[in-house]
Amino acid sequence: MKLAIIGATGFVGSAVLQEALQQGHDVTAIVRHPEKLAVHPSLTAKAVSVFDEAALADVLRGHDAVISAYNPGWTNPDIQSQMIEGSAHIVNATKLAKVPSLLVVGGAGSLEIAPGVQLVDTPQFPAEWKEGALGAREVLNQLKNEKELNWRFISPAVFLEPGKRTGQFRYGDDAVLFNDDQPARISVEDLAVAIVEEIAAPRYNQRRFTVAY
Fold this sequence. Notes:
Elements: E1 2-6, H1 11-22, E2 26-30, E3 43-46, H2 53-60, E4 65-68, H3 79-96, E5 101-105, E6 112-114, E7 117-118, H4 127-143, E8 150-156, E9 159-161, E10 170-172, E11 178-179, E12 182-183, E13 185-187, H5 188-200, E14 207-212
Parallel strand pairs: 1-2, 1-4, 2-3, 4-5, 5-8, 8-14, 9-13
Antiparallel strand pairs: 6-7, 10-14, 11-12
């Protein structure tokens, strides 16, 4: 497939880029600093702002799917508003470009820790991640109203960390996945496997899903 990955030098985006290339896809990486990417015969790097909707649509045109790992930066004081606005531009540009599929990488904060209670709304949720988590939740809420596009939104397990690619994990929907009484984990490498596999063989059209060990 011909894939566009937005934020391909970030923590999740770089793992998705590696997985997509390893699986033989042609990738356009949309990043702030293309010089950070190693040369690869199946990789094209483009420096385009997600806030320039027309330019972004021009780059996205002709792709089979868009994977958005866009994040304005966890230390950005405007992370919540920029995440919401930037993601809206990505949705609009994807539709303008007539790309049929969009997968958005979100966080675990909007997963339910108990029926009707999302993780981000609990007192235990880390303050340093809260603004970004609230932004990601609003991105999901906006996507739920999107009827034209075949979108999907992935929330990783509560604990997302560097690790190994095993290709072995389980799927869930809107609730936190547990191991016994502890929230489950996932490596960023296996999160990337789940993302690329969902693009290649969609199961969660216009839905959110999560993965964990």
